[in-house]
Amino acid sequence: MSLPASAILSRLQSRLKLRHIQALLALAELRSMGRAAQALGMTQPAMSQLVAEMERLIEAPLFLRHSRGVDPTETAQDLLPIARRIVSATEEGAERIALRQRRDGGLVRVGSTAAATGALLDRTLPIFARSHPGVQVQAATLIGQSLDAAFASGEYDIVCCRHREVLPDGWTFVACAEDDLVPVCAPSHPLAGKLHVTRAELGRQTWLQNHVSTVARRAFDDLVAREGWTDVREVHIQTRVALLIWSMLRGSDYVTLVPRSVAMPFLSEGLLSELPTQLGLQLGPLGYLWRPEHAGPATRHFANALAGD
Q1: pLDDT digits (tens, 9 = 90+) for 142-182
Q2: What integer is the mean pLDDT of 92-96?
Q3: Helix extents (H) in the chain
Q4: What local confidence, expressed as pLDDT, does residue 309 receive?
Q5: Residue 286: beta bridge partners?
Q6: Disulfide: which of 166, 171, 196, 304 matches 309 by Cβ 3.0-4.6 Å?
Q7: Integer distance in angstroms from the first to the last C-alpha of the chain?
Q8: With contact defined as beta carbons under 8 Å apart, do 127 and 84 qualify?
Q9: Which CB contacts under 8 angstroms, 24+ apart, belong to 220-226?
Q10: Alpha-carbon torsion 255, 260, 262, 268, what sign?
Q11: Looking at the predicted structure, is the pLDDT value of residue 104 above 70?
Q12: What percentage of the chain has pLDDT greater than the value 70?
């Protein structure tokens, strides 16, 4: 009779050790008791003992032994993703603790939308790395629902994004940059060298379309309706990744409507061109959300850098 999930969970929570997890991962990768034991700096009997303890906990075999070594069972395969997350979280936690204990540095965990990355992090991070070499910044991209979840998860000290009408409890917004929507294309596009591009000319282009949930997509749909464009040609590949937008525009005759902030790093390097058309599509300001009362010295230094102080 198989164990119920609640019993397995109780046993794992009370008796499973990190050493067991390391043994599971090493064996799954190396497929040899001897090599896995050597990799973890233990004897082969000790490795066998760890496996036997895990198998008793869940009352199921984890590895099939044969003359060439071992192979993970389906049960072991089910455990491997969990084991990898546990080891990764443990390693990250150890690094964070060590960084916080350093007197000359610290850790700042930053989450950022694509727009805020282009307008704020692109210019701030290189300068900050030189001026505060003892501070480690961990930056992650936030897209869609992951932005809303960032405020409750406790994973970030600073969240760079556009101004929100309703601020999360305890978070303060600091505006850093204005933003608007602009049509962009590759520098080789036939319209890129013109002094002025009419809206009628824009309507005849082939458009790389934005994701349906983005402000750029809603603004584009409104622009089509307002200008009376008919039979608009579209490329049906949608992405919020700035690098992929550039990849699609590069060497093509496509045009796309994006926040200036998203295109800014590519515009400044001459990799994209902004078409000279006044659309007047203003967006809310970009900046960062943080909790000043919870901010340590490293976070305060980074906040000041974002604000240009």
Answers
A1: 887 778 788 877 788 999 999 988 888 889 999 999 999 99
A2: 76
A3: 5-15, 18-30, 33-39, 44-58, 74-101, 114-116, 122-131, 145-153, 199-203, 215-227, 242-249, 260-268, 297-306
A4: 74
A5: 162, 177
A6: 304
A7: 66
A8: no
A9: 220/257, 223/257, 223/279, 223/281
A10: positive
A11: no
A12: 97
Single pTM value for the model: 0.65
- Which amino acid is present at 175? A
Task: Give backbone dihedrals phi and psi of 275, rounded to 5 degrees, phi first.
Answer: -75, 130
Distant-in-sequence, close-in-space partners of 303: CB < 8 Å, separation ≥ 6 = 158, 174, 288, 290, 295
Supply the Cα-derived Rg of the chain in whole angstroms.
26
Task: For residues 299 and 106, give the distance between their C-alpha atoms in angstroms, rounded to a whole number.
Answer: 8
Cβ atoms of 62 and 51 closer than 8 Å: yes
> Which residues 6+ apart lie within 8 Å of 240 measured at CB?
114, 143, 144, 211, 214
Place of tokens 């199921």: 60
Q: Which two tokens stand for residue 217?
A: 């997509």
Q: What is the DSSP letter of 231?
A: S
pLDDT tens digits for range 253-300? 999 999 999 999 999 999 999 999 988 899 999 999 999 988 888 999
Q: How far apart are CA 295 and CA 309, in angstroms?
A: 17
Position 197 scores a pLDDT of 92
Q: pLDDT per residue over 174-230, tens digit each?
A: 999 999 999 999 999 999 988 999 999 999 999 998 888 888 999 999 999 999 998
- 6 φ/ψ angles, rounded to the nearest 5 degrees: -65, -35
56-93: burial string, b at 16+ Cβ within 10 Å, e else: ebbebebbeeeeebbebeeebeebeeebeeeeeeeeee
